[in-house]
Amino acid sequence: MATPIGNLDDMPARGIAVLAAADAVLCEDTRVTAKLAARHGIAPSLAALHEHNEDAMIPRALARLAAGERLALVADAGTPLVSDPGYRLVRAAIAAGHRVTAVPGPSAALAALAISGLPPAPFLFLGFLPPKAGPRRARIGEIARLEAAGLGATLVLFEAPQRLGALLADLAAGLGAERPAAVARELTKLFEEVARGTLGALAARYAGAPPRGEIVVVVGPAPPPAADDAAVETMLRDALARGLGVRDAAAAVATATGRPRREVYALALRASGRE
User: How many other β-carbons are positioned within 10 Å of the β-carbon of residue 19?
Assistant: First the structure.
């Protein structure tokens, strides 16, 4: 069940009913969930489930489900399993034949994507990259190789505020300083802020001034690789063969490849034999 990412009034109405009716609520931090429940006038039975005790809690949770109890799973904020514990429990419950359903609601990744001003689909959620510089740069290198092979997706990442500057600098170095990006901070809270610009500009902005609060980084998709003259001429010949005139073929291929229209028109003349 999703819970608010900042503003407690974002709690889904069905979520409040589920909290009140559950035999137990499994949560990362019982203090956080108790505060949320109190805000909505309920006092459910809480049990901690986090990365350090999930293995031990799974058989206990399965036993309670087998006894007919209803369990709710929440994260401290947002949608469970999205960079939060719970995946292994959900997988085990499904394997044991129990019904698993979702109460949808707030998600920091989706909220940041929606207000970033960057293409929303397709997008690739990467969660937290490795905190240490070497493994983080290696992961960014893997992403760059995927993009060179044709991956074209907006990237969504989480990051701790003290590492934001280093992450942006590594992204700028590995993916291109001119890539458009956005840094969303404290979403739905009083001091919500979205900084938009290139990776290079954002890296410079946060290099010596780590921000406060929860951070989501959104990076626009890689530009398509520039088509060389041979590839452009092949596309032009195909367009001409379909009956397009030289000017229309040049316009269509220029749009598809991102090449300047004047260059493509010159190639179209050559492909048509009118040069």
Answer: 23
Residue 275: pLDDT above 60?
no
- Helix (H) / strand (E) element for 26: namely strand 24-27
Q: What is the pLDDT of residues 90-125, one digit of tens each?
A: 999 999 999 999 999 999 999 999 999 999 999 999
Place of tokens 């074209």: 152
Strand ranges of the sheet holding 154-159, from the earlier edge strand across to the other edge: 123-128, 154-159, 215-219, 180-185, 193-198
CA–CA distance, 196 with 198 (Å, rounded to integer): 7
C-alpha 230/C-alpha 200 separation (Å) is 33
Helix pair 199-206, 164-175: axis angle to 10 deg? 150
* Residues 6 or more apart in contact with residue 19 via CB below 8 angstroms: 1, 25, 37, 40, 42, 44, 72, 74
| CB-based contact 194:170 (threshold 8 Å) | no
More confident residue, 64 or 210: 64
| CA 133 – CA 241 distance, rounded (Å) | 52
Note the Cα 275 to chain centre separation in Å.
48
Q: Give the integer Cα–Cα distance in Å for 200 and 111.
A: 23
In the chain, the amino acid numbered 175 is L
Cα torsion through 130, 132, 134, 135, rounded to 10: -20
